[in-house]
Amino acid sequence: MNSSGYTPNTGVTAPIDPGWNDPPKFSYNPQTTPNKPRNILNKRVAFPLSNATSSPVVMPPMNIPPMPVAFPPAPPVHQIPSIQPQEIDVDSENTLKEVKGILLELLDNSTELGAKANDIRRRIGVMEEMWSSGKLDKRIFLQMKDLAYALKDDAPRKADDIHRALMVDHVSAVGTWMPGIKQLIHNCIARSDLLSIDKEGTE
């Protein structure tokens, strides 16, 4: 079927709607260029083969100053000479008498110790025996004197510090009898704390 018709009255060819069985029309444009081939993205690229090896990079020489031949000697260290026990001037017998008297007086006034008092008294006797037989260092004499007077002056915590120092520095000499002195010190600390609480309560 023809898609155009002639109108006799007007002399103009009018377009006619195509029928259902008319073949489709294709327009052809001679100026249209054919499709260009697409770039192939998965195309393999040959790796260049070369027998030449890359030469190592040579760093320019660095100007390093020469090491000193010798260091200057260190200044001498002046050590403070330690006091030797034989250089300590102390009256061993009178010091023992003072220490023993203070400890036994405190022990007699500590009735709250009960049966522990007998063990403390025995250990004070061991201290006396070692002291009199020359088995104790003179430095121990002075420290025990300070400990005893700290207890007498109601400073049991200071006495406890001295007791700890003796156990660190002279444990082999005081280890057998110092536990009794320790019990007496701790009893004095507990008594001092109770007195402080009672004093605060009455104020």
Secondary-structure blueprint of this entry?
Elements: E1 4-7, E2 12-15, H1 92-108, H2 116-132, H3 138-152, H4 156-169, H5 171-174, H6 178-202
Antiparallel strand pairs: 1-2
Q: What this model shows, in words?
A:
This protein has 203 residues and is mainly alpha-helical. It has a domain at 87-202: RNA Binding Protein, Prp18, Chain A (Up-down Bundle), CATH 1.20.940. 45% of the residues lie in helices and 4% in strands. It contains six helices and two strands. It has helices spanning 92-108, 116-132, 138-152, 156-169, 171-174, 178-202; strands spanning 4-7, 12-15. The protein has a two-stranded antiparallel sheet. Helix 1 (92-108) runs antiparallel to helix 2, helix 2 (116-132) crosses helix 6 and helix 4 packs antiparallel against helix 6. The longest helix is centred in the last third of the chain and has 25 residues, at 178-202. The chain starts with a strand and ends with a helix. Mean pLDDT is 77; it is low at 77-81.
Key features?
203 residues, mainly alpha, RNA Binding Protein, Prp18, Chain A, elongated, 2 strands, 45% helix
Strand content: under 5%
Radius of gyration: 56 Å
Largest sheet: 2 strands, antiparallel
Cross-sheet strand order for the largest sheet: 1-2
The ordered string of helix (H) and strand (E) elements is EEHHHHHH
Proper CATH architecture of the domain at 87-202: Up-down Bundle
Number of strands: 2
Mean of residue pLDDT? Answer: 77
**What is the overall silhouette?**
elongated
Unreliable sequence segments: 77-81
- The CATH superfamily of the domain at 87-202 appears as Functional domain of the splicing factor Prp18
Characterize the quaternary organization of these chains: single chain
Highest CATH level, the class of the domain at 87-202: Mainly Alpha
Question: What is the percent of helical residues?
Answer: 40-55%
Region (Disordered): 1-37
Biased composition (Polar residues): 1-12
Domain SRA1/Sec31: 62-187
GO molecular function, one term: transcription coactivator activity
